[in-house]
Structure formats: C-alpha cells, structure tokens
Amino acid sequence: MARKAIVTGGSAGIGKATAVALAQAGYDVGITWHSDEVGAKEVAEEIRAEGGTAEVAHLDLSDPAVAPAVVSDLIQRLGGLDVFVNNAGAGHSDAFVDLSLEKWKQVLDINLTGAFLCAQTAARHMVENKTHGRIINVTSVHEHIPLPKSSAYCAAKGGLGLLTKVMALELAEHGITVNAIAPGEIATKMTGNEDTDPQTEVRDNIPAGRPGHAREIADFVVFLASPESSYATGASFVVDGGLMLMAAAGSR
C-alpha cells in the first residue's frame, strides 16, 4: 500500500514541486490550495497522468480555525497519513513602525497559527494510529536572520522554527520526526522569478551565484520523508546556496 502525504500550498512553487516529487517517490498525495484552484487541479492531473493518486482541497489559513477540518478530510480521503508538509505561507513588506495590527495578525495566522493547527491535526492522527510519521515545516532563512520590512514574516517563521523543536521533543516517543527546511531565494512566484530558469539568473549576494529551483527544496523534503532520515529530528536544514554565509563574510 502506498504511503500517504499532504502538502499545504501545493498549487505552485515549492508546494507543487514537493507534491510531484513525493508522488514520484510513490506517495499518494493530498494538495491544498488557497487562491489557485486551477493550478492545484493541474498538479493533481500531472500526478494522476503518471499513475499516482492525488486529492485536492481548499484551505484558507487567513482563518486558521478551518485547518483541522480540511486536514482531517484529506486524511480520510487518502486513507491515512504518513508525511505532512507545512508549506503554505504568505509574505508582506512594510516598515515595522508602519505595520498595522491587521496585517501583523494575518501574516502570523497564515504562517504560524495555521501551520500549528495543521501540524497538530496531523500529529494527533499519527499518534492515534501509531504511525511513525514525518512532519516537515517549510520555514525560510528568515527563521534565522532578519529581513528589513518583514517583521511579521520573520516573527512567524522564527516562531515556526522553535515550534518545530518543541514538536520534535514531544513527538519523538511516538516515533514521529519533525524537522524544518529553511529555503533561501527560490525561483517561485513569491520571489518574482517563477518563470525563469534559476541557472540563468545571477546573484552576487549568494555564494552559489544563483537562486534555487523549487525542485531542489522538494528533493530535500523527499529525503526527510524517507526512512533514511529517521535519526534527524528537531533540526532546521538551511538550503540557501550559501546565502546565510554572506552575513559572516560581511562582518569582516
């Protein structure tokens, strides 16, 4: 029987690449979408065309209270859950002194509270069914380093990074590992270069000299979902082409 995985925000970018990569690795995959229903259905059809199984559901984490019902429904439709990937997120750019409470709450609802409720629902199912599962939270290099005009985003991703560690501590006794992946600049819609080949883009501020491809993050997710990663838990794996190293280089 195929293992089961759910990827939130699976209609494009890292989420799409992750859903496809997990399907290619033999998983039945559940995909959630917020605004791009067409994109999510296209991802599902791509998976089915290659002989895989895919289910699609709408999830709007700006109202995080809806998350448990949506995740539970996808688990039921898939017939179980082995891997949960918290990928859905949203950014916002505003100076700290100008950031409204409304926008602050919206960014934290989507990136932190919604992620918490999704992961909690997944973990409860795994514990109840004695599944030695995997929970993978997609954070950002800005889990670790600040970004001007992104106070809410950095606070949310930093919070999700530390939540990952608490989850790992508490869920280890149930055979569940919990890790974070912290991407740097990836060629997705959020960074404004989704339709370009990362290999053709030059980035002087990144030691690798280019942005990353969404598939490079997806492949890391597949590894963390696999039995080969069973001794890794509570870690944040930075996948950024060396971007964070530039902070040290700049301090010399």
Essential attributes:
alpha/beta; 252 residues; 7 strands; seven-stranded parallel beta sheet; 14% strand; Rossmann fold
Provide an overview of this structure:
With 252 residues, this protein is α/β, with parallel strands linked by helices. It has one domain (4-250): Rossmann fold (3-Layer(aba) Sandwich). The protein is built from seven helices and seven strands, in the order βαβαβαβαβαβαβα. A seven-stranded parallel β-sheet has the order 3-2-1-4-5-6-7, sandwiched between helices. Helix 6 (214-225) links the parallel strand 6 (177-183) and strand 7. Helix 1 (13-24) packs parallel to helix 2 and helix 1 (13-24) crosses helix 6 (214-225). The model has no long low-confidence stretch (mean pLDDT 93).
Helix content: 40-55%
Rounded to the nearest angstrom, the radius of gyration is 17 Å
Number of H/I helices:
7
| CATH topology name | Rossmann fold
Helices and strands in order, then pairings?
Layout: E1 4-7, H1 13-24, E2 28-33, H2 37-49, E3 54-58, H3 67-78, E4 83-86, H4 101-128, E5 134-138, H5 151-171, E6 177-183, H6 214-225, E7 236-239, H7 245-250
Parallel strand pairs: 1-2, 1-4, 2-3, 4-5, 5-6, 6-7
Provide a concise account of the structure shown.
This protein is of the alpha/beta class. Helices cover 41% and strands 14% of the residues.
